Amino acid sequence: MAISMQLLVLLLTFLVAATAVSYNHYRLPTSLRPQKYNLRVLTQLEDPANLRFEGDVTILIEALEDTKNITLHAKNLTIDESLIKLREINGDRQICIASTEVNTVHDFYIMHTCQELLAGSTFELTLPFNSELNRQLEGYYRSSYQDANETRWLSITQFEPASARLAFPCFDEPNFKAPFVVTLGYHKKYIGLSNMPVKETKTHESIADYVWCEFEESVPMSTYLVAYSVNDFSHKPSTLPNSTLFRTWARPNAIQQCDYAAEFGPQVLNYYEELFGIKFPLPKIDQIAIPDFSAGAMENWGLVTYREIALLHSDAHSSLVDKQRVASVIAHELAHQWFGNLVTMKWWTDLWLNEGFATYVASLGVEKINPEWRYLEKESLNNLLTIFRKDALESSHPISRPIQEVAEISESFDSISYQKGSTVLRMMHMFLGEDSFRSGLQSYLQEYSYNNADQDNLWESLTEAAHKYRALPKSYDIKSIMDSWTLQTGYPVINVTRNYKANSAKLSQERYFLNTQISRAHRNNCWWVPLSYTSQSESDFQNTAPKAWLECGKAGETLPKTIENMPNENEWVIFNTQVTSLYKVNYDEQNWKLLIETLTNGEFERIHVINRAQLINDALYLAWTGEQDYEIAMRLIEYLQREREYLPWKSAFENLKRVGRIVRQTPDFEFFKRYMRKLITPIYLHLGGLNDTFASIEQQDDILLKTLVANWACQYQVEDCVPHAQEYFREWRESPNPDETNPVPINLRNTVYCTSVRNGNEDDWQFLWTRYKKSNVAAEKRSILTSLGCSREVWLLQRFLELAYDPTDAIRKQDSMWAFQAVASNEIGFHLAKNYFMANVDSLYKFYHPITKDMSRLLPPLSEQIISQSDFDNFKAFIKENRKSLKGLDQALQQTLETILTNVQWKERNYHQLTRSIQLLL
After folding, report:
1. Are residues 416 and 378 in the same domain?
2. Which residues are the active-site residues?
3. What whole-number distance in Å separates Cα of residue 52 and Cα of residue 638?
4. What's the pLDDT tens digit per position in 484-529?
């Protein structure tokens, strides 16, 4: 087919960066505003060699200011200029386009009009477009699955944060909300899904066996929430009485794995309607499991997309951890239907308003529906453990961070936006109380429904509620308090120095850093800290309301604080009841000794389980950075031999893992191993070792505790752990049909697989690799994938790394990083993975591009194990030399280097002290 000269020129402008563009700001001009989109997309899935889409978009545009150009977003689209139409609605006249230009830096497509578009007028712009269904897992892309040895293709969208522009020309910023009418064209053997219900389906006017499927007009929404898919999936309906039509979709050969999601989803949706006081705004909601998906899930309004591992659940193959993951992700995405979709941030600076809220509210939703899981406690502690680590780096960033180019947006989808955002919201919930928190949220959502807001709008609604319910003094406002948490990087350590004669305590705060070279002058930040505390005789851990506040002055300086009426000198005091606030506490030596006495010899259970986890975490962190002695920290965690609860063990293992990864590279690892065995043996035996006792376990978090302890027990060869794991594996291998019959207890499979591969041979590895290729369950595939990296055979690990990045092999692109991380976390595999990363950085960058966030996830297991100054210097030089192949990873690289530096510092400062402390306890 002959190509027009005009079209050829346009294609070239897309391929070559525009040299002189008239508009170069990173945000769209505000002179025009979309009022409505009519989007038609024809998708061709029949020819695997030519998977494409084409269509046109008609945008109703209002001029807010006089302008002579229309600037919107388009990327990697072919647009035939000769078919662009612009019509003024008021006068019903055509307006010509004088010229167009492309800004490839900001993905702008700019049309210069022959005459001025006057403020107050409305225009109709129609743009045709076409492109291939890409393989990059963003924009409008292809995915596939195998059914009876046949490859079946489907199409799906992933537009967040800025990829709608890859699918159709649009105003691709969150504050340009408009209603959408989507019409999909496709072969009649498929089905079409979008945000809204189907309005009508009719035969295509010219292509045989094709149909046009038009969906109802949507509510006003941001472009990143538009979604559509053409597929041949099956679904499970699960609508509750008097509620929204609710369907769960998956490939037909996995539809039986949808039962749990179909049951849980409508329940949590109903809970949110009650919590927010607003009915779900759409007539239906679909959730769909996509075989190839870059994110965990995506909250598209009315059509929520998930990785298979985040939506599908199999009673025969998925552990309790897997099930809780599914519940958590569904609850997170459905919370977004209000926080993010109904009320959207004005700009990506406030991404945390979406993600922090969805993370926190999800934990409330899961807790409400499955109280037996004690999920809120577990999730709160997990978030704290993540943030205490990540946000103690100088290279961390504020929750609310300025965004000045699209590349920076994806870096904000990290634990600061999610877990720290959630943690500070939990803190606020606790100091405000239920009534004012809920009332403030409801008035915020009602006021900004179908609009955009920023964090100050939320603070206003909450301040009003706080004063109404007398949760805060009139002189306090939420903005002053919360800005100290959202606009500053880091968190404080609060030093509590008691005056035992005067029964008082002096409190001071400073920013906590892992890097001990940072001077005291750089630690002088101030946070508004709600202070809850209790004493040994009182032991009131239920009262989490603040008894006092650490305040900041007008210039942001810390105001001194002394608290009277402390207990007598024989009693401990604990600050931060149930760890409702994001800070560490360092006590004077006497208070630490009183705490150690109760934990080791007294009624340690009188201290709340979250505070026991807090004491372990704070003591080990403060010892790491030298603010506390390792002797105190190690004496404190000795009590774990008496501990039978999940959260303190989780806290201990998270900290000991980091120390272990350094010490295992030294001659004194033998002492550390003996110490770990001493610590773990009592709890391992108490839980029945590796025996399948799960049916008799009454408390659900004891299942998690047994899973956790088993993993560590086999790593450190406690008792019969390794031979017992190998026995399970041998039984499985001898099974006549191992893909149907697996005698390994579901919750112990990770441990059994990894232990057996680590202590096994090539046949064991090959057996597990075959099971991976044959498995139909995403959670099981993840377990197997991470276990294959446990081998101690260098050649097998090297082969596994090659398989992970072979596009023709069984490991999907989205899962390659799990394989890499598994090898890199293994003490033998670490050196191979590091060398592989450094030798193949160019091809790895091309493999992951443009989703560089996935490449950044290869770095943490490397940074946690580099411990010498020379290796640090080498890695730093490597980064400097390979900037081009590490583009877009700036934040991850800074954090990697800083983490390595803190390892080097720890080894020089603490290694001998830790070894001495351990030897005294053996």
Report:
1. yes
2. 333
3. 63
4. 999 999 999 999 999 999 999 999 999 999 999 998 888 999 999 9
